[in-house]
Amino acid sequence: MPGITISSEYGAGGALVAPKVAEKLGLPLLDKAIDADIARSLDVSEAEAHEGERKGTWADRFFCAIAPVADTVFGDTEQYSHAPNEFRDQAEDIMRSAIADGAVVFGRAGAAALAEEPNVLRVRLYGELEHRVAYLMRTASVSEERARADIASVDGGRAKYMQHLYERDITDRSLYHLMINGPALSVDECVGIIVAAYGALRETSTAPAAG
């Protein structure tokens, strides 16, 4: 079993669980580093890599085409690239290279990217909205209003990324082997469940065929 993907609703504990799973198993963790690698490879900003699409004003594109050194721009209408293949392919190359030796991939649509890999455990952390709000208020020391706004923004961005690159619903249960109610358990309990599932599936994948 070369790897694990961990997807998480915001406030369900994924940001704490994923690093601990990687540490417990002695595997590297891939999260924001994927964005940095994509940004370097495709010559885009890390924000663009994170969202899986190139952005720029109409004027930026116009002046890049006719005068690379032009420093006068106008307009503020964003134009998006609707061909996500370059971002999807680059991200998948990074993930597949890492899981060849074992890795934990946090976010970045890893469950969809590696859905056809038989030896990758795909995990989703979720939680009731009110529980996630309370979790963020407690752990991030933010107001209830801020917690709700952050959940809507982050969850929306993650869902958009999955839909844009893979045309999949991030909440589609068929993408995951294991779904855990993160706020209902401690971080260590979540880690223990994932590590145990990883070990069980690895034993199954390496067991000799009967007969």
From TrEMBL:
Protein name, as recorded: AAA family ATPase
Naturally occurring in which organism (per UniProt): Branchiibius cervicis
Recorded superkingdom: Bacteria
